Amino acid sequence: MLLAAGGLHGFADAILTKGVPVKIMPVGDSITEGKYTIGGYRKPLQDLLKSNGYSVTFVGKEDNGDPANDTGFSKGMENPNHEGYGSARIGMLLTGGTTEKHTALPIKTSLANNNPDVVLVMLGTNDVFGITATDKMKATMDKLVSSIYEQSPNATVVLASICPIGKIAARDADVNAYNAVLPDIVQEQKGLGHKIAFADIHSVVALTDLSGDKVHPSAAAYKKMAALWYSVLTGEAAP
User: Whole-angstrom Cα distance, residue 148 to residue 108?
Assistant: First the structure.
């Protein structure tokens, strides 16, 4: 279903082909969930892809359609499914766990249940809040990405850097340190023959783009994120 993995930087190699049906599983925390917005980056990304000839279906256990279950951030989306969990750390998506009344299954189970062609991974903000050492974060993300390929060897992973954090200024150095090691994971996986690309989300979201809590992106920032995801997936700049 897919052409090729995207490059480490830039948009040279398309991952998606127009008109070819592809299942995409967004994996992450409340930023993937889209807290305080409708669909976060997922809705504008979905709209961009579909309006430009790409046949995509978002998959995942969560659909954020039940306000009684602390959800609602995707209400009204045509295709709301995802694997984003508020307050989740990297390890929770790896092995499973419950946070903010939502239970994530181990990543291998989620993959088996949804069979995605492309997995968008953006995690680490809550690990930084927990002052987890960068080397431990890298090791856990290594395991997560490796687990994806163990379960779904033909999937394409797009691994993203995380946004800046304005709520605790001292944490931003940790954000930068973590983001700096993510391209190493991409290169290691490419060396193993896996289809993987890097999306430098941090490069398009500034501190001034964050919402009032100085952690989650604003609606405008989510659109910037969607444009970058689009470029990495399609090999072309977002219109």
Answer: 6
